[in-house]
Amino acid sequence: MAYCILDISSNLQVFPYIVEWNVMNLIKTENVTQSNICGMLTNKKKVCGKKAKYHKEITTVTGTTTHIYSCEIHAKSHQTLSMPNKGFSLTALKKKSLQDVRVLQQKYLGENENIKKKADIVDNLYRHFEKHSWDPIKENKVNAGHVDLITIGRNLFIELSQNDIMKTVTHVLIENQISPIANRMKTIQGMLAQHFISIGKEHIEFVSSGNKLKEFETISEAKTEYQKHKKDGVFFCTKLLQDHKYLLWFQYFIDFKAKKDDLADSFLQGIWWWRKIQKNNKLM
After folding, report:
1. Could you read off the pLDDT of 194-211 as tens digits, one per residue?
2. How does DSSP classify residue 46?
3. Domain assignment present for 74
């Protein structure tokens, strides 16, 4: 389930600031624990708390072994660990020429040419990259239709309850599920609304899925309306991020693989609502 938290408190005339933007995994069969959420600190010196996508086993100064976990954004900005690079896998390194691996050797290891054999250089490089790169957290893929609603409800509660930023929102927009074949999504919509009702949020609104593209002209030539809306959503989301100089979030969106269309929808719904209250010049 995709969500986007926007901050518009400073000035209704300034384009919204993205506080948090992600996709919750509601179909995992194991509960989210403290160990697999991002433990990095935000600019406000608080633990991030987002779902971790990377981890690393490290040895502390006392000699003990521990794991650190990070979300996508904090992993990219880490000072000592690099993002995983398929070009530095053992297979990829073995395919490189001797000249190429020597260039990498000089760049990353700073060693002279005393090591002559390509196999030895490759081995040293691989061990270096393995030590200094994040390890992706691999999840077993689960068919969403095979996960019961009780499990989904519990996962939803855990995701929302452990996210401190989610507790600070003042206005909640939930996309209305009206399709006759969307019974499961309608149930989840109710679960989501009930959660925010239970924690005292006064402004909760069900909004039409058509709102997010109201101010844009369709550009997709996909066969079905559903496919058109999905492709248009990704296109216009990308354009808004570029036009309004969301440099970090633009790259974050480009790199996002699964559920990119849902991620775009959540952002565009928020922008639609902001523009609506901007016209009324008041916060409803």
Report:
1. 999 999 999 999 999 888
2. S
3. no
